[in-house]
Amino acid sequence: MHNTGFSGCRRRKNCDIGARAAEHFSSLINPRNQFWRLLAALTNEDMLAVPYATRIDLLRKHHIGLWDVLGECERQGSLDSAIRKPAANDFERLRHRCPELAVVGFNGQAAGKFAPQFAAQGYRTVVLPSSSPAHAALSFESKLPHWQQLLRHA
C-alpha cells in the first residue's frame, strides 16, 4: 500500500496507527520522499534525525495521527498507478478511535480520491501535493504552503 492518508487528530492522544500502516509509514524513509521533511516543517520538530517510533511520538505531541486510506490492495511496484483492487480502510474504526478528528489531509491525488467520503461525513479535507519522489514536478518549497493548510484548517 502506498496511498497515505494523513489525518490531524485534535485533543485526542490515542489516535494511533495499526501495524500494517506502521510498516508502510516507516517505509517512507526514501531520502527523496519529502513526507517526513514536510511534517518536520509543519511541527518544527527534527523528524529526520530520529527513529520512526520517535517520529510517531512527536506527531502525537502535535495531535497529528497517520492513517492509510487503503485497508488492502494488490500492487506490483511502488507506483500508485499500479494499485489494483483497492479497498478502503475501516473509516468507522478511525471515527471511533478519533472522535475529535476534524481535518483529514491526503498525500497525493490517488489518496485524495477518498476525500469525498470524508467530506460527506462532515470532515474538512485537504488533498495535498504528493510527497513522493515520483511527483517531483513541485519543489519542497512549492509543496509546503499546501501542506500548511492542514494547520490552518485544524
Automatic annotation (TrEMBL):
Gene3D superfamilies: Uracil-DNA glycosylase-like domain. It comes from the Bacteria. This is DNA-deoxyinosine glycosylase. SUPFAM superfamilies: Uracil-DNA glycosylase-like (SSF52141). InterPro entries: Hypoxan-DNA_Glyclase (IPR026353), Uracil-DNA_glycosylase-like_sf (IPR036895).
